[in-house]
Amino acid sequence: MTSSTPAARVLVVDDEKLIRWSVAERLQRDGYEVLSAESGEQALEMLAATPPDLMLLDVRLPGIDGVQTLQRALSLHPDLAVLMMSAHSTVDIAVDAMKHGAVDFLVKPFPFQALDAAVERAIATARTRRQIATLTNERRGQSALDAIVGASAMMEQVRTMICRLAASDTTTVLIEGESGSGKEVVARAIHFRGARAERPFLQVNCAALPEHLLESELFGHERGAFTDAHTQKRGLFESADGGSVMLDEIGDLPPGGQAKLLRLLENKTFRRVGGVQELRADVRVIAATNVNLEERVAEGRFRADLFFRLNVVRIAVPALREHVEDVSTLAAYFIARFNQEMKRTVHGVSASAMEMLRAYHWPGNVRELRNVIERSFILHAGADEIRPEHLTPELRKAAPPKRPDKIVPNITEEGLVLDDVEKKLIAEAMERASGNQSKAARLLGVSRDTLRYRLKKHGMA
Ligand SMILES: Nc1ncnc2c1ncn2[C@@H]1O[C@H](COP(=O)(O)OP(=O)(O)OP(=O)(O)O)[C@@H](O)[C@H]1O
Ligand SMILES: [Mg+2]
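# magnesium ion complex -> structure
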């Protein structure tokens, strides 16, 4: 072992003092840091406090036996390397232990060389397991973030918040945003980037269920808690233990549910509906809302204490109209997705259709954009490009009218007075730009100074 790498830590678990002592002695001499325990219970306690790289575990132990200790240890630290130690009489148990995740086994009494070799191999295996786990998690975390399309400053800010949250996996989060703006996409990224990624991500829409069903959905119920409760049922918080629960439309959570949720957040405890037993659940709560929760608090419809408890970190997902610069990227993303799903080869959006997409106010946000593109795929199966005629009437109305078509007048028999035409055009541009001179100048294709000069000339300024 080189001095630059920290000493690997080994936990030796055996009820025989002599074995603990001799193995520890040898491994310390080899440069390992060694801890020892005389029972499975003690080993699990030590494991929780200072996880080692390797556990040398006797098959036969007083109290919980070696295999049970192995199983519990691996449920705490899935990539811990465990090397079983066994007498001749218990070799079949040691072999069985490998099916439960032990790396290898040694038959007692073993020569020290065999110990050295087995320990080295087991530690190398553990290192590889950990590297694979980290890589898999990083990749999964990255892809959760990649699922959020859009490079605008607003979306970058959302991404930054998500990355910061990955480090603190118990923090509750409040996600605000209009319907279809991407709250769920954000919630998933928070979960799958964080340390809870391996555990469940469950969600419920608080507005979708009547009060008593919602409470039993969230917290579970005991048999006989109400008329239809024929069996006991685990709630969402119980099922998601160790993971995250997204509570959509949290503003619609009824008062009873609000009180229970507050207790869960403060003490990590809850009771099933109709139950007396206090149960524990370790979940990250990600609440989402498309109404202003502060207003609900002011109206007395939402508990202020719960609001403060939820509002630890707040992420505002912008409405699509606030980040129109992402419309073309999002459109390209959905086109690629539908091309794949529907085996098509649509290559993009025509310039005039894109102008419409960018001008529209998108009340249904990203979901509506996705639907518009999906609809054009379905209704115009032969098209290889999305053009204005493939869009909905509302979208077509949204496009800024093309100047030349509408306002250039024809020269009639009587002729026209150029000055009058100019005056009318300027008036129309000013009206469309709601009095904003820069915008009006842009509409007319002149500089702001030119526009000012002409406004003055016509006595319009
Ligand atoms: N930034 C984004 N990148 C890619 N897809 C997105 C993005 N934002 C939203 N979507 C897609 O738009 C649709 C709606 O998003 P999502 O369900 O997250 O919205 P929401 O805010 O939870 O809506 P609601 O308030 O109705 O629950 C989904 O299909 C989602 O995949
Ligand atoms: Mg949603």
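# post-check
The chain has 20 helices and 14 strands.
The mean pLDDT is 88.
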